[in-house]
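Notebook entry, structure prediction.
Reason for the run: the old model in the group folder had no record of what sequence produced it. Starting over properly, with the input documented here first.
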Amino acid sequence: MAMNKAAIEILCPACGEETLLKREPKYDGFKKVGESLLCASCGHEFAGEQDVPYRGRARPAVFDDADRPAAPRVFSGDENARMCRYCADYMVNPFVQRCVRHKREVQATDTCAQFRAKPPPKQAGPGAP
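New structure, fully documented this time:
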């Protein structure tokens, strides 16, 4: 059973306890050469990562994908694409958001019947700064 390095709960075969895995660095002088894998309760050292008996995270298979509810859909179609935020007449500065067409203050999530889509951003070509 391959577990990630973050898993620390184990069933120690030496002491029989449900305990934690303690990782201590091994050094050769000032150079780190590996890690010691130890039982936090009794200090039993495991030979390698594959020998550590991690506590299983088995979950009961009570529900399957057919039991999941359908994902909610808040917007239908391009309804959210007609917001002021995506309009060519929407202007933002550090103090206020304005509609240039109507010359008034707006919010990014406002909508308008006279919506004009912003042109797509220009892609920088090869050799461009």
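Summary: The two ends are 51 Å apart (CA to CA).
The old model has been moved to the deprecated folder.
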